[in-house]
Design a protein that fits this description.
four-stranded mixed sheet; 142 residues; alpha+beta
Amino acid sequence: QNLKFDLALDTMVIGHFNEEQLSYHTMEMYRVLKPGGCWLVLEANDEGYASRLPRRHYGRLHSLKNFLKIADHAGFTTIDTSYEGFYSPAFPMTINFIRKFIFSRKLDISDFSSSFNFIIPEKRRMLWLARLHKPLNNEPKY
């Protein structure tokens, strides 16, 4: 059966792939999306403060720039990109623990709208987000 989807979401997935596997995964995402479909990818930022933590877990991190190049080669167009989330540049695990569990009035594990998210430079935030589009059959790529 040939299923097609309007939307696909990868959250902290592509760090598990080496570059060859990422290229294959990207082509598969293109294949399974309907024309006009969207692919959202949220991934650890290789330029973010404390990027050493997810890099140690994955063994690698894919840069947004390289990912977009791979996606473009597969046929996707980029809708937009952004950066979000906070990790302290010093003692990130300790600072996060204090912020989230000791001083938190209610448990909130996200930092997407916290004031901390906005005080650090955008490209130093914890995650990057790419929103991609599979062009319609008659839609030009650019």
